[in-house]
Design a protein that fits this description.
The structure is a single chain. By secondary structure, this protein is of the alpha+beta class. Helices cover about 25% and strands about 30% of the residues. It contains four helices and five strands. The protein has a five-stranded mixed beta sheet. Strand 2 and strand 3 form a beta hairpin. Bound molecules: zinc ion. The site of zinc ion has 8 residues, from loops.
Length: about 180
C-alpha cells in the first residue's frame, strides 16, 4: 500500500479513490521521515512549538456533490508555546477543521466554495507532514498567554502604563481651540 509518509501525496489519485488518511504521529517523526534527518522538534514550527506533541489527524480526499475536489478533516494536538506575559511555556490545545479546495491553477480560486482554503497543485510536492504542519501553524494563537495571571500584579500595571504613554505624550501637543 501507498506509504503516506515516504513520498509526496498523489492528491489527484487520492481524490479519485476517495481515500481517507488518518492516524497519529509526533511532529519529529513525520518530519524526520520526510527530510531523512535525525528527529528534530519541527521544521517551520521550530522555535515556536517548544514540545514534540503527538498529533491526531484525519484527511478525507474526495469530491462534493457539485464536483469540487476537496480535502476535509481535522488536526488535533496540544502544543507548548511561550507565554507572552511570563515567557514560560503554556500548553495550547489545537483543534482545526480542515477544508481545502484542490485546484490545478491559481486563476480558478474563485470557483471554489467560500468555506474552503485553496490548495494549488503542481507548484511544490505536497507531503502529508506539510499539510499537518500548515494546519497547526494557521491555528496558533497570535499572543499565547496563560489563562491565569502568571506575573505579579505590579508587572501588569507597568505594562498598562507603557501602553498609555504615547497617548499621554500626544495630549500635551494638542492645543486648546481658541475659537
Ligand atoms: Zn504566563
Amino acid at each position: 500500500m501507498f506509504d503516506q509518509w515516504q513520498q509526496p501525496l498523489d492528491i489527484p489519485a487520492l481524490i479519485r479513490k476517495d481515500i481517507t488518511l488518518q492516524g497519529e504521529a509526533r511532529i519529529s517523526e513525520m518530519l524526520s521521515i520526510k527530510d531523512g534527518l535525525v528527529a528534530r522538534a519541527s521544521g517551520r514550527l521550530d522555535g515556536i512549538v517548544l514540545n514534540d506533541p503527538l498529533v491526531r489527524f484525519e484527511f478525507r480526499f474526495g469530491r462534493n456533490e457539485v464536483g469540487h475536489r476537496l480535502i476535509e478533516g481535522s488536526v488535533d494536538t496540544v502544543v507548548d508555546l511561550t507565554c507572552q506575559r511570563c515567557l514560560e511555556p503554556v500548553a495550547v490545545e489545537i483543534h482545526t477543521k480542515v477544508m481545502l479546495g484542490v485546484l490545478n491553477n491559481e486563476q480558478d480560486v474563485g470557483k471554489l466554495p467560500e468555506s474552503t482554503e485553496p490548495l494549488v497543485l503542481g507548484e511544490n510536492p505536497v507531503w502529508l507532514a506539510d499539510l499537518i504542519e500548515d494546519e497547526i501553524l494557521l491555528a496558533l494563537p497570535v499572543v499565547p498567554r496563560h489563562a491565569h495571571l502568571c506575573v505579579p500584579f505590579h508587572r501588569e500595571y507597568d505594562d498598562a502604563e507603557v501602553v498609555e504613554n504615547p497617548f499621554a505624550a500626544l495630549r500635551g501637543l494638542v492645543k486648546p481651540s481658541t475659537h
